[in-house]
C-alpha cells in the first residue's frame, strides 16, 4: 500500500464508527493495522484530520458512504480499533510501536505537544543555533512562551540567529528534533514523582521547625549528625528554619534590626507580588525614608522575573536566618 493510499484509508476509516472500522480491519495482517493506526495518529498530531479532508476522501471512494455526523476523537478511535483487531494484549505493544514510529517520522510533532516549560527545560544548555531552529519550528504562540522561559543570554542569542536563518539539512533537523524529544522523555520521567518530591520538602520543613524549638546546643548537635549523613539535606533544613512566609511571625523590634541590613532595591523586588500580610509587615517595620526609597525603586524597575524575585526574597531572609541560628531572632509567642 502506497503512502498516499494508506493515508486515504486512514481518513476513510475516520468517517466510520469504531465498531464498523474494526469489523473492516478484521483479518488484516498486523502490519497493515499498525500502519493505518500510525497514520491516524499522525493525522491527529499534525492537525490534518479535519472534517473537510475526511469528507473529500470519503466522497472519492463512494458517494453513498454514510458519514458520521459528529466528530470522532482520533485517539479513542485508535484505541478501539487496536483492541478490536489485535486484542488487548497486543494493543499496548502496538501503541508503543506506533508512537515510536511517529517520533521517528516527525520528531517535532512530539515537541509541539509538550508544554512551554518542558520545552524550555529540554533546551537548557543547548547551542543557540539549535534553540533557534527548534523555536522556528514551533507555532508562534508556543515559541513566544518557550522564549520567555529561557535565560536572557540564550534567548537573545537564539533570536539573533532566527533573524539570520541558514539552510539546514533534513538530517540535521531530525537529529535536533530527536535530541529534544529524548530530553523531553527524560523530563517526563523525572516529573512522574512530584508528590514524593513535595512530601520531602514538607517533611524537611517539619524537621526544621522541630529543631528550631530546641536549645541551640542540642539543635546544632542534631544538625551536625544530619550533615554527616547528607550535607545537602542539612543545608536544606537550615534554610527551612526561617522562610519568607515566617516574616509575619517575627516580633517587630527584632525584624526592624535586620531589615536595616537590606538594600531598598532588594526590598522593592522582594515585595513585588508579595502577600499583603507580608508586605504590610515589612513596610511597617522600615523607616519612612526607606519606604520612600522602596517606592521609588518599585516605580522604576518594571516587572521583575520570578527568579529575581525569589533571589531578592532570599536576601531578605538570609540575615533573619543567621540571627535565628545565633538565637538572636525573636518570634511572636503563639497562644
Provide a concise account of the structure shown:
The protein has helices at about 5-15, 20-25, 30-45, 50-60, 75-85, 90-105, 105-110, 115-125, 130-135, 140-150, 150-160, 170-190, 195-210, 215-230, 230-240, 250-260, 265-270, 275-285, 290-300, 305-325.
Written overview of the protein:
- Helix 3 crosses helix 6, helix 17 crosses helix 19 and helix 17 packs across helix 20.
- About 6% of the residues have low confidence.
- The longest helix is centred in the middle third of the chain and has 21 residues.
- The chain is mainly alpha-helical.
- It has four domains: 103 residues, no CATH class; 81 residues, Annexin V, domain 1 (Orthogonal Bundle); 48 residues, Single alpha-helices involved in coiled-coils or other helix-helix interfaces (Up-down Bundle); 92 residues, Annexin V, domain 1.
- It is elongated.
- 22% of the residues are buried.
- 73% of the residues lie in helices and 0% in strands.
Report Rg.
29 Å
Strand content: under 5%
Mean pLDDT: 76
By secondary-structure content and strand pairing, the structural class works out as mainly alpha
Biggest sheet descriptor: none
From the spread of the alpha carbons, the general shape counts as elongated
Name the helix and strand elements from N-terminus to C-terminus, one letter apiece: HHHHHHHHHHHHHHHHHHHH
Question: What helical percentage do the residues reach?
Answer: over 70%
Contiguous low-pLDDT stretches (5 residues minimum) are 62-72, 192-199
How far the N terminus sits from the C terminus, by CA atoms, comes to 79 Å
How large is the count of helical segments? 20
Count of the domains: 4
| SS elements, strand count | 0
